């Protein structure tokens, strides 16, 4: 992981862990994995899963992930023109 991603994980993880202070780090990560619906091994959990789950945790249901939202176009014609480099 790059330095800014490490800092982002720590910043996002701190409030979550403080709410669950009785848990160890591995238990906190396991809980995040379960909440996110990840069924793989702890060693294979992608850092993006942790980051986006913690970012979206307090968002309203149906809210779009920020990384996807910036590329989303409501109008198909605009999206097509943008994809072709014309808009």
Automatic annotation (TrEMBL):
Domain of life: Bacteria
Gene3D superfamilies assigned to the protein according to its UniProt record, in alphabetical order: Protein of unknown function DUF1040
Protein known as: YihD family protein
């Amino acid at each position: 992981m790059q330095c800014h991603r490490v800092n982002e994980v720590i910043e996002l993880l701190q409030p979550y862990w403080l709410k669950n202070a009785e848990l160890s780090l591995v238990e906190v990560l396991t809980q995040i994995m379960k909440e996110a619906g990840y069924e793989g091994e702890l060693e294979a959990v992608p850092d993006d899963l942790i980051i986006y789950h913690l970012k979206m945790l307090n968002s309203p249901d149906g809210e779009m992930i920020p990384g996807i939202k910036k590329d989303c176009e409501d109008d198909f014609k605009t999206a097509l023109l943008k994809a072709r480099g014309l808009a």
